[in-house]
Amino acid sequence: MTDAAAGPGAVTRGSVVRVGAATAVSALCGYAVLYLAARDLEPAGFSIFGVFWGAFGLASGAAFGLLQETTREVRQAVSGDDAGPRTLPVRVAIGVGIVAAVVIAASSPLWAGHVFADARLLSVILLAAGLAGFCLHTTLLGLLAGLDRWSEYGALMVADALLRVAVAAGSFLLGWGLGGYLWATVAGSIGWLLMLAASPVTRAAARLSTPGGTVTFLRGAGHSIAAAGASAVLVMGFPVLLKATSGDLGAAGGVVILAVTLTRAPLLVPLTAMQGNLIAHFVDQRAHRLRALITPAAFVVALGVVGVALAAAFGPWLLREGFGDDYVADGALLGWLTAAAVAIALLTLTGAAAVAAALHRAYAVGWMSATVASALLLALPLDLEVRTVVALLCGPLLGIAVHLAALARIPTA
């Protein structure tokens, strides 16, 4: 059976399995990159790498707004909700990518010195070029998700992950140092080129037009990009926010960044990867918007409870044995950070439901409220570890409330 065999608009168990398998590979590759960097760089060096990893995560996370809007537009067109394709999402993505790269390069003298402690020029160049490529990557993912082409969707995810780990492994084996891991961070941004070359289905998807004009598409994508950017601050760009509110992070910051990254990855990597599935599911279930949240939210909470227990019990040992004696964190910290990851995962779910309902403003306000709240909480006069937990655990609750209130106000279809 093909990906679309169940008919337009159907999010099948097979699609979830395909994307789930690709997510597992991507997660393992992500862990491998972090492992190699932590082993190769001392905590202070890993802190520098972690900030760039977070900076690219922040920028590429914002680009996921293109995935969300493209998926929604394609899904509604396939479902028969609209007609008259007039916009090429890939063409829009090229323009957005070029503009984003120029803005990063032109504005870098204002912020690069405050964010990148070393290799600043290389970091800015890679960040700009990597983001331009990732705009195409996420738009292509959105097209494939909207068309139920989950095998190709998963293959594009895996291409991204494998390119990253391949460059990281080369850096580890050949001793390229910090610069090699910076290259590894953005290496996956050319994965879409490989897919276009290898897959006729992907090439056909790239030529697809969606209903509505370019301005309409950009308006919806703009809200999604703004909100995705705010979400990326908490999900991937948190090291940047932490440095901005803490100054020199040093070795302690490297440990906290690694702990935050490792405790959230089991939940947030799959959820981020499955944005296409989630939005398609919520579009299909638009007659029962809030009810459609119950099952995925219950699954996330149940998985989170298990994760908190495991992180508290075994996390310190795994951190020390896996990454070296310099990386020390107690079980309470790792357990609380895992609980914070559950809160952000629930915010991700409610955000996907808001996007599916075309509540772009509420989606953006929810994520921005959570981000601002977390940033303010990071400014509290507390120890680095304590304020990190407080910010990541409490900030998302405000965003969840905003999303749920907006979803509750709209009438069912």
From TrEMBL:
<keyword id="KW-1003">Cell membrane</keyword>
<feature type="transmembrane region" description="Helical">
    <location>
        <begin position="388"/>
        <end position="408"/>
    </location>
</feature>
<feature type="transmembrane region" description="Helical">
    <location>
        <begin position="88"/>
        <end position="112"/>
    </location>
</feature>
<protein>
    <recommendedName>
        <fullName>Polysaccharide biosynthesis protein</fullName>
    </recommendedName>
</protein>
<keyword id="KW-0472">Membrane</keyword>
<keyword id="KW-0812">Transmembrane</keyword>
<feature type="transmembrane region" description="Helical">
    <location>
        <begin position="44"/>
        <end position="67"/>
    </location>
</feature>
<feature type="transmembrane region" description="Helical">
    <location>
        <begin position="334"/>
        <end position="355"/>
    </location>
</feature>
<feature type="transmembrane region" description="Helical">
    <location>
        <begin position="250"/>
        <end position="271"/>
    </location>
</feature>
<feature type="transmembrane region" description="Helical">
    <location>
        <begin position="153"/>
        <end position="174"/>
    </location>
</feature>
<feature type="transmembrane region" description="Helical">
    <location>
        <begin position="124"/>
        <end position="146"/>
    </location>
</feature>
<feature type="transmembrane region" description="Helical">
    <location>
        <begin position="362"/>
        <end position="382"/>
    </location>
</feature>
<feature type="transmembrane region" description="Helical">
    <location>
        <begin position="220"/>
        <end position="238"/>
    </location>
</feature>
<feature type="transmembrane region" description="Helical">
    <location>
        <begin position="180"/>
        <end position="199"/>
    </location>
</feature>
<dbReference type="InterPro" id="IPR050833">
    <property type="entry name" value="Poly_Biosynth_Transport"/>
</dbReference>
<dbReference type="GO" id="GO:0005886">
    <property type="term" value="C:plasma membrane"/>
</dbReference>
<feature type="transmembrane region" description="Helical">
    <location>
        <begin position="292"/>
        <end position="314"/>
    </location>
</feature>
<feature type="transmembrane region" description="Helical">
    <location>
        <begin position="16"/>
        <end position="38"/>
    </location>
</feature>
<keyword id="KW-1133">Transmembrane helix</keyword>
